[in-house]
């Protein structure tokens, strides 16, 4: 029996970047907000002197316990899905701050092309350019409409970066200068320029200098310690929710956080959310939290799962192509090139999560696809994130993976190996989707989320193109041994790590027939329910998703405030 609690004006489910932004904006406007976070409490003090590669990078201290809740996976609908028992292709964060704690800090925007991708592709190349089964659609919002919210997020996070003619247009410059250019990055940028490309220093949430944001929160200068991805920053030099939006919300006096609160269901009546049910991990008791507004800001997969579990919206059916919840699950298509140098050494022990040079010439529709058999592309980048000793053992192809030969080669190439990577865009495919598993359940008896996903011909062709372009740059850099890397040559494998850039499932659009939410992240079928995060992306772009999540969260918060002013409406742009 659930214990009913006093009603709140707004309940935010999941307190990371999206939840923190929404909580801060609502709380600053005087709205009473309760944040429910299923993980533990975290503060910046937890990470002081915690540069422990084994604890965080390998044992995944900041990640979800898959023995209690996981996802099941299959490549196609004729396979039996099995639970993911150990962290593999992507890592699922938990605790206050979410994935915003352990991200690298790479902060590029999506392109104008992304938001009107179907229209633009057809206008330029014709409808036949879109591969059969690729269910491409526009987002229901344009880059120009979203641009002010990108700027707002960048000011909150203090992003360090620079523009050039291949990056999306910006109404204002980045709030802090670009990061340092190391010898390895300079070599990449010089080689790219020699090939007629347009390299730039990548935008970074590892700040180039001390910065105080408009809310009065200070982020400090990066120390290049190399412990960004999968780690919290003990210098408070990587922008994350714990040092920006969450304390901003708390400072208002209108925001309360409950940790160890695992939300299982959104309660709803007559087209409106009325509250949430959650299990308190401290006492195992179930509680019912009534609310005037419910906002789902959990990770991509749990946003979708909660919608399905709560029976809100029509689940997607790939056979009939009817329904929208679970539709358009996308990932990212990784490829690139590795280069080994005999006569050059680089101080790769120093680095930061977003320290790198990038080339956007092969991203979006920046290049002509007329004679190519795929659409979109991805950034090419050389990132100096810092090499850590346990996981870093580069050796040439065909080297034994053990013994004296391996040790000698690994030691020799430790400081002589560079990598260029491409984050290839992922297009939605009819048979790539999310639903509830009919067999497997979590520790509370609720069905796991089932992922059905495989690479398409579009993915494989894009990956091959990007690997070839990466190889060209690496050879121009003078590497003695160059090897292409490509994770999309066969079927998608959920075991080796790729990225945690999962998207889709509660997609955004201009119509309730083709999407779950409108462009304010408001659910078409449940007017006081908002779903915010990368689950609303209709496809995944060729760059990191976090800035777009931040921009959409600021826009969603604006819509929520409009709804509080005028209950009962679907929020729309003013003419």
TrEMBL record:
The keyword Translocase does not apply. The keyword Cell inner membrane does not apply. GO terms for molecular function: gluconate 2-dehydrogenase (acceptor) activity. Keywords: FAD, Flavoprotein, Oxidoreductase. InterPro entries: FAD/NAD-bd_sf (IPR036188), GMC_OxRdtase_N (IPR000172), GMC_OxRtase_C (IPR007867). Residues 428-553 form the Glucose-methanol-choline oxidoreductase C-terminal domain. Residues 150-317 form the Glucose-methanol-choline oxidoreductase N-terminal domain. Belongs to the GMC oxidoreductase family. This is Gluconate 2-dehydrogenase alpha chain.
């Amino acid at each position: 029996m659930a214990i009913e609690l006093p009603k709140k004006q707004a309940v935010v489910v999941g307190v990371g970047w999206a939840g923190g932004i929404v909580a801060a904006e609502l709380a600053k406007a005087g709205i009473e907000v309760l944040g429910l976070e299923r993980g533990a409490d975290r503060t910046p003090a937890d990470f002081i002197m915690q540069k422990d590669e084994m604890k965080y990078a390998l044992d995944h201290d900041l990640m979800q316990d898959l023995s209690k809740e996981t996802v099941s996976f299959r490549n196609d609908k004729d396979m039996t899905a099995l639970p993911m028992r150990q962290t593999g292709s992507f890592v699922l964060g938990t605790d206050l701050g979410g994935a915003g704690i352990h991200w690298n800090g790479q902060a590029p925007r999506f392109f104008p092309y992304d938001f009107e991708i179907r229209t633009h592709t057809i206008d330029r190349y014709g409808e036949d350019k879109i591969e059969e089964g690729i269910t491409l659609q526009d987002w229901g919002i344009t880059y120009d409409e979203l641009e002010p919210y990108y700027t707002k997020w960048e000011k909150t996070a203090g992003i360090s970066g620079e523009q050039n003619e291949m990056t999306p247009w910006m109404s204002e410059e980045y709030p802090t200068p670009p990061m340092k250019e190391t010898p390895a990055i300079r070599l990449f940028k010089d080689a790219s320029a020699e090939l007629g490309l347009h390299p730039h220093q990548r935008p970074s949430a590892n700040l180039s200098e001390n910065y105080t944001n408009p809310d009065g929160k200070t982020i400090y200068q990066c120390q290049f310690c190399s412990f960004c991805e999968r780690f919290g920053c003990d210098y408070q030099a990587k922008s994350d929710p714990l040092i920006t939006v969450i304390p901003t919300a708390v400072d208002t006096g209108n925001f309360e956080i409950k940790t160890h609160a695992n939300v299982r269901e959104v309660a709803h009546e007559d087209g409106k959310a009325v509250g949430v049910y959650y299990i308190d991990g401290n006492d195992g008791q179930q509680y019912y939290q009534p609310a005037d507004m419910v906002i789902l800001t959990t990770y991509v997969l749990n946003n979708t799962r909660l919608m399905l579990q709560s029976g809100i919206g029509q689940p997607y059916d790939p056979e009939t192509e009817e329904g929208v919840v679970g539709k358009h699950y996308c990932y990212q298509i990784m490829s690139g090139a590795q280069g080994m140098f005999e006569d050059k050494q680089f101080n790769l022990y120093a680095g930061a999560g977003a320290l790198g040079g990038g080339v956007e010439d092969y991203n979006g529709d920046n290049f002509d696809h007329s004679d190519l058999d795929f659409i979109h592309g991805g950034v090419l980048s050389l990132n100096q994130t810092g090499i850590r000793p346990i996981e870093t053992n580069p050796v040439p192809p065909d080297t034994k993976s053990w013994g004296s030969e391996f040790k000698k080669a690994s030691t020799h190439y430790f400081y002589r190996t560079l990598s260029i990577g491409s984050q290839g865009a992922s297009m939605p495919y009819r048979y790539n989707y999310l639903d509830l598993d009919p067999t497997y359940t979590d520790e509370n008896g609720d069905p796991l989320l089932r992922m059905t996903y495989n690479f398409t011909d579009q993915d494989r062709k894009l990956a091959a193109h990007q690997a070839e372009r990466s190889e060209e740059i690496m050879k121009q850099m003078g590497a003695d041994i160059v090897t292409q890397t490509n994770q999309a040559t066969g079927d998608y494998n959920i075991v080796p790590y790729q990225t945690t850039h999962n998207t889709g499932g509660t997609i955004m659009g201009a119509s309730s027939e083709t999407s779950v939410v409108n462009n304010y992240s408001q659910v078409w079928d449940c007017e006081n329910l908002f779903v915010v995060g990368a689950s609303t992306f209709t496809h995944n772009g060729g760059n990191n998703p976090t800035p777009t999540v931040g921009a959409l969260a600021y826009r969603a918060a604006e819509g929520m405030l409009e709804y509080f002013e005028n209950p009962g409406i679907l929020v729309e742009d003013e003419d």
